[in-house]
């Protein structure tokens, strides 16, 4: 089983690396465009004028109409609600098993993995490995409401690496701890928004146990990108907001609110 888990982790690392590379390319494009604009505008300005211009741009942004910020914030808040999961051990226990069958035996290195199919009274279906009559190892859980989880289980609970497909079109790929999104993850929303970074207790958070202050990046569907620190599902700490119109704000956030310069 250890070899199988290593194989899952290797695939997961490739997915994370690819997603981070994609976001890095987006940021490099922002920086390149900003650099060219600054170079073009600086021909007839001295250093003090350039510095004054940059400071004025930042302050103007803070006090200007914040309709873009409100739109981004509403998207972010809606997403936090849409991706909450309650797939704990207690949730599985209440589903009474009504049928079980051995589907196949799969050779895996020096092991033979037994793949079972279990049908529950509420319409849920599980296909995967068992240990001591508990879901343990690799498996796929099909929920009666149309959602699906594909990944690792431990003692009857979603735990380890896995992919979760939400009702409505959202998809999470990453680490799980005792039925909750905890660790490093990639969350793609049906709307086109995307978050890459730390999770803790099912929400965006880079300060959770073992996360070592992970940075989280949220790419909004309108082209805005925020990269910084998150805690309890909100922007908290140092961050950088790059708007689709090339405006850049670097500062400190508390509970999703940018603090005055």
UniProtKB/TrEMBL annotation:
It comes from the Eukaryota. Pfam families: MORN (PF02493). Keywords: Repeat. InterPro entries: MORN. This is MORN repeat protein. It comes from Paramecium tetraurelia.
